[in-house]
Design brief:
Layout: H1 7-15, E1 75-77, H2 103-107, E2 115-117, E3 119-121, E4 137-141, E5 150-152, E6 158-160, E7 163-168, E8 173-179, E9 183-189, E10 195-201, E11 212-222, E12 225-233, E13 239-247, E14 253-258, E15 264-265, E16 271-272, E17 282-290, E18 295-302, H3 306-316, H4 322-337, E19 340-343, H5 347-360, E20 365-366, E21 373-375, E22 381-383, E23 390-391, E24 393-394, H6 395-398, H7 402-409, H8 411-428, E25 434-436, E26 439-440, H9 449-458, H10 465-476, H11 488-494, H12 498-503, H13 515-536, H14 539-548, E27 556-557, E28 562-563, H15 595-598, H16 606-612, H17 615-628, E29 643-644, E30 647-648, H18 668-681, H19 697-707, E31 709-710, E32 718-721, E33 728-733, E34 736-743, E35 751-757, E36 767-769, H20 771-774, E37 777-784
Parallel strand pairs: 34-37
Antiparallel strand pairs: 1-3, 2-5, 4-10, 6-7, 7-8, 8-9, 9-18, 10-17, 11-12, 11-16, 12-13, 13-18, 14-15, 14-17, 19-33, 20-23, 21-22, 24-25, 25-26, 27-28, 29-30, 31-32, 32-36, 33-34, 35-37
Helix pairs in contact: 1-4, 5-19, 7-8, 8-9, 8-10, 9-10, 9-13, 10-13, 13-14, 16-17
Keywords: Glycosidase, Hydrolase, Signal
Protein name: GH92 family glycosyl hydrolase
Signal peptide: 1-20
Length: 796
């Protein structure tokens, strides 16, 4: 690997002490040393990461500092999400990550002023459609009039991997943020001679989902240290987090305001907010007096207790050295991104690609203390022994591309995550669905974790097939009386609709909430369970779940040409073709979409789907109808974005559909529509992600697609070709490199003329197997601008 001495690389060399350093007062001195002979990571890749991508429109990403899989995401909160602001165009939905780039709404350009920051909090979600976290808010200020919020100018913002900075207008305070896995590090530089003050707010929450602080405790341990606990509710009900914070300067004076009361002097060693008398609101105001030194603050989090937070602080940031922490964060990102190297393509395409890799590596997060302790989903403290506990699983989104991508680029991590899901089922009773910071929300439908662990099993990762099967069966057999240990609110959300589906003659009862989507997804997940059973050698389970995989065909209406709701206790169709409206996105029948998108969710047997749609010709016609349908038909759900006809790239059920053209006589349309999606829906701008990033799924789709292939059906270890963006992609695998090359590749040459996998022609439907990647090898494309020369699908 070539070492490029970029500004970031120079910063790394200096801060890691390769030229020597002195940590006193953060002053570094240069000394002559011999550079190490070990390879130095190429830091230049970080220049292609822009954390601002996705912070506008409905991308819902955050721009703050984070390391790969870090429990701390230290980022500015610019909008609480409690009401709609007509002047900026913000609404509660936009507060999902705590940050929303409103500059276009305010003044029509990115240099707009008077945008507000409420402070910098330590936990955030990347790209979700729901809101929570925003724990432990910190705001520097000089004047008491500016301790609620402050304005900033977009021109002063700087966001890069592991680092964020901005200048707060009132007081001209420069705020800088960086992180380790469990510690957020702040550096605030005040004007010469100004008062140096910091607000620490435990009541702050990102409130779009009616979240609130339930109880808080805080203690001024000594003149350099403060610790506390925050319990809150919202989307994550009963979230419990501890912190331990230290400062490089002594606190001259501390005030505390409790539950809306007047601020009063804070006494050293006193605990405010006892268990018997909790405070919902605890805001401390810390005064460090006037001085020349910046205030550096280290805030460690723990899911277990104060002692755990203190240990995390001591282990990960034992000294005050902001530059060193920043450099280590940058190095962590460079190491992660080194697994995939690209050549060719434009700077914009490289920025899209590596920023997508960055977004796809933020979560799931490592959610345990340095000593291995963590809380399970029932609140019990456990000790990890040889494994790591992870959190923030948006499984309905990420089973489609995030986890399949990891089986290629980081198979060990893919293994760890699959085993973590299985272990959570063993600990609490059910596989997680949408779990965050130790709390199960039950959001979205079905039991999609089965597709994640199923994919790991069939690809031969180190996952016990019998354990995976047993975990999956518990979710598939769900009955509420079998799980008395799980809170009622969780169970109601986790499996809503499932009971009626399996107890009413194999059809969803009463065309109830999201009934068609439930039926289709249950059938697919049951198919993934059947594949696990096959690997585990359980013939009876295979037969049972493979049979269940076809029950959703009862919803197929040949006359309507769509999957439709059905009546209670029978499979008689509720809606005839003359009254059924496939454009209706009413959530009563479908989840975040309509019949146009959901007709393609029968992923488990696309041969069968082709048959019911009228064979290859009918299947081809249905695809063409999808992409040419009226994009404005019906009323759309807020998650329906990125339209090409009624294909919607901004939401997950459509993500595999373009690749289905590889099963038709017009396989060249796969490349044509992919090229359009690349150019229209992924851009290196704040509004450059067409829908919610969804914890890496939008990005993982782009990464895999840009490399030239995609897995249509997770748990079927088969990939089909697409339209590669780069001339060369090299994936560093444990067993050797897998290299993808594309000859004659350009913006105009979007069609695939020929492809070889390890020197051999592809399988049927322009596909190849995971085993052909796993051992290392080559995938070679030849591209053309001539549609008539495009490679045809092998349909037999």
């Amino acid at each position: 690997m070539t070492f490029k001495l970029t500004p970031i690389a120079i910063s790394l060399v200096l801060s890691l002490g390769l030229f020597g350093c002195n940590n006193d007062n953060n002053n570094q001195t240069q000394a002559e040393v011999t550079l190490p002979a070990t390879p130095i990571i190429d830091m230049g890749v970080l220049n292609y990461i822009d954390p601002m991508i996705g912070t506008a429109a409905s991308g819902h990403t955050f721009p703050g500092a984070v390391v790969p899989r870090g429990m701390v995401q230290l980022s500015p909160d610019t909008f609480k999400g409690t009401n709609t602001d007509t002047e900026t165009g913000q609404n509660p939905w936009h507060s999902a990550s705590g940050y929303w780039d409103a500059s276009d709404y305010v003044a029509g350009d990115v240099l707009a002023t008077d945008l507000n920051i409420y402070g910098f909090s330590h936990t955030h979600l990347s790209g979700t459609g729901a809101t929570d976290l925003g724990d432990i808010l910190v705001l520097p200020y000089s004047d008491d009039a500016n301790r609620e919020n402050n304005a900033f100018d977009k021109a002063t913002e700087n966001a890069s991997p592991g680092y964020y900075s901005v200048v707060l207008n009132n007081g001209n305070i420069k705020a800088e943020l960086t992180t380790t896995t469990r510690v957020g590090v702040h550096r605030y530089t005040y004007q010469q001679g100004a008062d140096r003050k910091i607000k620490l707010d435990l009541a702050h929450t990102l409130a779009a989902n009616n979240g609130e602080s339930l109880q808080n405790r805080v203690e001024l341990v000594d003149e350099y240290t403060i610790r506390g606990r925050r319990v809150s509710t919202g989307w994550f009900q009963g979230q419990d987090i501890f912190f331990y914070a230290q400062f490089n300067q002594p606190i001259a004076h501390a005030l505390i305001a409790r539950d809306g009361g007047e601020a009063m002097d804070m006494q050293m060693g006193a605990v405010y907010g006892s268990i018997n008398s909790p405070n919902k609101e605890q805001i401390t105001y810390l005064d460090f007096g006037k001085g020349d030194q910046p205030i550096e603050m280290r805030v460690a989090l723990s899911p277990v207790d104060w002692d755990g937070a203190q240990k995390n602080l001591a282990a990960e940031t034992p000294t005050y050295n902001f530059a060193n922490v920043k450099a280590n964060a940058e190095l962590a990102w460079a190491k992660e991104l080194a697994t995939v190297q690209v050549k060719g393509g434009s700077d914009a395409e490289k920025t899209n690609f590596y920023t997508a890799m960055y977004h796809a590596m933020i979560a799931p997060v490592e959610y345990q203390d340095v000593d291995g302790r963590y809380r399970d989903l029932l609140g019990s403290v456990r000790q990890a022994d040889g494994y790591k506990n992870y959190s923030v699983y948006s499984t309905w989104d990420t089973f489609r591309a995030v986890h399949p991508l990891l089986t290629i680029t980081n198979p060990q991590h893919a293994t760890d995550l699959a085993n973590d899901l299985i272990r959570k089922s063993q600990e609490t009773g059910l596989l997680p669905k949408w779990e965050g910071y130790g709390e199960e929300t039950g959001t979205m439908i079905g039991y999609p974790a089965t597709a994640i662990i199923g994919d790991a099993v069939v690809k031969g990762l180190d996952v016990n097939a019998k354990d995976a099967l047993e975990a999956a069966k518990k979710s598939a057999y769900y009955r509420p009386y079998d799980f008395p240990q799980i809170p009622d609110h969780t169970l109601q959300a986790v499996m809503a609709g499932q009971l009626s589906y399996y107890e009413r003659d194999k059809c969803v009862g009463l065309p109830n909430w999201n009934s068609v989507s439930y039926a289709l997804e249950f059938s697919y997940y049951d198919w993934t369970i059947a594949q696990m059973a096959k690997v585990a050698g359980d013939d009876a389970a295979y037969k049972e779940f493979n049979d269940r995989a076809y029950w959703s065909l009862n919803h197929w209406d040949k006359d309507a040409g769509f999957f439709v709701p059905v009546k209670l206790n029978s499979c008689e169709k509720e809606f005839a073709s003359d009254v059924f409206n496939p454009y209706s996105s009413d959530a009563y029948w479908y989840t975040e979409g309509n019949a146009w998108q959901w007709q393609w969710t029968f992923m488990q047997d696309i041969d069968k789907l082709t048959e019911v749609m009228g064979g290859t010709e009918g299947f081809n016609t249905k695809l063409n109808d999808l992409f040419t349908a009226d994009a404005n038909g019906g009323e759309n759900h807020q998650d329906m974005t990125g339209f090409i006809g009624q294909y919607i790239h901004g939401n997950e059920p459509s993500h595999h559909v373009i690749y289905l053209y590889n099963r038709t006589n017009e396989s060249w349309k796969t490349q044509e529509y992919l090229d359009r999606v690349y150019k229209e829906f992924y851009k290196p701008t704040p509004d450059g992600i067409i829908g919610n990033e969804d914890v890496g799924q939008m990005s993982a789709w782009y990464i895999m697609s840009a490399m030239g292939f995609y897995q249509v059906t997770p748990t079927d270890p088969t990939y089909t070709i697409g339209r590669p963006i780069f001339d060369e992609v090299k994936i560093k695998l444990p067993t050797g490199d897998f290299t993808i090359t594309a000859d004659n590749n350009s913006s105009d040459n979007k069609y695939v003329k020929s492809v070889l996998i390890n020197g051999k022609p592809l399988n049927v439907f322009n596909s190849f197997e995971h085993s052909e990647i796993k051992a290392g090898g080559t995938l070679h494309f030849v591209m053309t601008a001539d549609k008539s020369q495009a490679m045809a699908a092998r349909l037999n």
